[in-house]
Every structure is written in C-alpha cells, then in structure tokens.
Write a structure and sequence with these properties.
The chain is built from 3 helices and 3 strands, in the order αβαββα. The longest helix is centred in the N-terminal third of the chain and has 16 residues, at 34-49. The chain is elongated, with a radius of gyration of 19 Å. 25% of the residues lie in helices and 15% in strands.
Length: 134
C-alpha cells in the first residue's frame, strides 16, 4: 500500500485500490452433450474454488482485451489441470475458463500497478538487472 500511495500520490490510505473479488467464468455451450458437460464443469469449478458455482446464461461476449477500462483484469486459462486440486486421471474433458480480478481501481493504470505490486508477472514489467559477481 505505501508503494502505491507514493506512486499515484494518494493523500488518503482509503484511496489506494484493492482487490474486491475474483470471478471465474466458463462456457460449455459448444459441447455436444451440454447437460453432462455442465455438471462436469460445475464439479471441477467447485473443486478448484471451494465454492458452489452459480449457473447463468451469458448476456454478451467477453472482450478479448485484458483490462476493461474500469480497473478489472481478465486472463484466460485453457486447461484446468494446472491446479493441484484436480486429479488428472479423473478429467473427462478439458475445461477452459476466464478469471476476472475485480478491483476498486478507477483506471487501468492503477489496476496494473496494484496487480504488479501484488506479484502479477506482466510481460512488460521492468526487470531488475542481474547482480554482478564480485
């Protein structure tokens, strides 16, 4: 928080952006057996997140850009097998999903600096020079 406060010149500690929630979305509409795919996807997401997923219908397609101009960041995960909670021999189909990190930041720059300070490995992040051997 002190680094973000100094970087953006916030006068009050409550102005510093915070992570509000993390939302996970997946789609099973392209599968041939939608009901079975939906049940499997709900079981996998419940295992990964520790919460019971809520079933909703999409209102519109998600923008392919990472930041949405309101301080929220979305990244795509193509396979659920990267999580240690998922048993690899029980996977019947690969489920890709989007992870949206909702922040209280008002701009994309503030959100990016918040996520960078939290350790998000952005590709254009300034790299520290390697230490020279003595």
């Amino acid at each position: 928080m002190p680094a973000l406060q100094k970087l953006h010149g916030y006068k009050n500690v409550h102005q510093v952006p915070k992570v509000e929630k993390v939302v996970i979305n997946t789609s099973v509409g392209s599968q041939s057996d939608v009901k079975q795919a939906l049940e499997e996807a709900k079981a996998e997401l419940a295992l990964i997140t520790g919460q019971r997923p809520m079933e909703t219908l999409a209102k519109k397609s998600v923008s392919p850009r990472c930041f949405d101009k309101h301080g929220n960041y979305t990244l795509g995960i193509s396979d659920q097998s990267i999580f240690p909670e998922v048993e690899l021999d029980k996977i019947k189909r690969n489920i890709g999903f989007d992870v949206t990190i909702v922040t209280t930041a008002r701009t994309d720059e503030e959100a990016k600096s918040l996520l960078s300070e939290m350790g998000m490995p952005f590709s254009d992040r300034a790299r520290k020079p390697a230490a020279q051997p003595a």
